[in-house]
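User: Show me a protein chain along with its predicted structure.
Assistant: Here is one chain, sequence first, then structure tokens.
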Amino acid sequence: MIKFHCDVCDQKLGVPPEYAGKKVKCTKCGKAHIVPAGGEEMENKAYGEGYELGMLPEGAVKSDHKKTKEEIEATIERESATLIGHGMIKCPHCGKAVKDSAKLCVNCGEFVKADAKAARRKEKKEKKVVGEPKQIGGLGLAMVGGGIAAVISGAIWAGVVYVTGYELGYVAIGVGLLVGVVMVALAGGQHMTVGIGAAGFAVLGLVVGKLMILQFAVPSLIASELIKMPGIEFSLAQSEMLEKKEFSERVQTVLDRRKYGEEDMDISPLPASIAEEMEKEVQARAKKMTDDEKKKLLIEHMVNPLLESLPFEERLKSMMSFWDLAWLGIAVSTAFSVGRGKE
């Protein structure tokens, strides 16, 4: 048991030995005290022999006579300067020497290394946020992953347009977000280089998305509108039956002889009976066609030939608008912010 007195109310205090060097409160007045290393008897002995137990090694400060407390403190402060760097460090709060392994200063009761630990934690956190990629190959891997993420996200955007029938511009923001997140994960952290790379790949993803929309979604959207036209299924059924020669033998024989549907066909009117029978067969085929079949035939026989007749630049230009530039800017900004982090 370590015994000592409260220097305010003179209350006798006693704590287990493991509390040495720790803060405790007086049970009477509530004042906080640092428990001396050896209790009242050892404390008196320390002052008598000329050193403060628990702070300086035994024998560091010697004296041949009884010193006052003020003399001992002055001696300790003077001797502390010579001990710094020899297994001792200077307390940042009171300036006295303490063991370099100490967590609490036995003189002032403050945490010796609290400020240093906090600084290291802050430095580690900042390094994690804005530091260089953890691995040498991390940046290269992030670039590869960013390119793959850009293509996949662009394809997803085109798929949304194909399914919904609407070019939802704000989905483009997701392209930038996905690219940024993937690159940060593969690089091992956020950094300016990662941000710039993410912004570039976001542009790539949007370009890929636009091209896929032009190639797959636009024909589907046009076909969805054309299919609403009255009588369109009759034209589609007739075109398919002529191409595949699916008419009855009697009708098909006449059509083949006249090269019907070809550039050098006989343009004279068909016999009335043949024309009537041909019309009935086409109508019967048209009634059996599903919407998916109609859409497929529209794209194959009407939409694609129409689009292919236009220069690629014209088709791409017809798809661009002010909103495309706006969504592009937001997507690029999102990718850059996610990849760079806060500096």
